[in-house]
Design a protein that fits this description.
Layout: H1 7-38, H2 41-51, H3 59-106
Length: 110
């Protein structure tokens, strides 16, 4: 680091550092505002749609994309629930058949 010998140089360096500090504070405020807008639900959904390669463009396509996403989510959840219910019914049926087969072959012949 360079040695500062004159008072004038000290003042210039102090002014340069103050300007740099103000620029950084301004950038920090701007980034904070962008972060707050991005974390809102509407901003979050827009960013997700942009990540998928779709631009929200006008409100019609934005809402239709949101409805498509919601419908896909609900259908996925319903399919998972139906799958679990079907699996439980099949397990019960298999258990009943196994018990009947055991009872059929387990009886003693007279």
């Amino acid at each position: 680091m360079k040695k500062i010998k004159h008072l004038k140089d000290i003042r210039q360096e102090k002014m340069r550092l103050r300007i740099r500090q103000l620029e950084l504070e301004k950038q920090l405020k701007k980034n904070w505002k962008e972060l707050k807008t991005d974390l809102k639900p509407s901003g979050f959904l827009k960013s997700k749609l942009e990540d998928l390669g779709e631009s929200p463009g006008d409100k019609q396509s934005f809402w239709s994309a949101a409805m498509d996403y919601g419908a896909a989510y609900i259908s996925h959840k319903l399919a998972a629930r139906a799958g679990k219910a079907t699996e439980a019914k099949v397990q019960d049926s298999v258990q009943n058949i196994m018990e009947k087969v055991r009872n059929l072959f387990g009886k003693k012949k007279k």
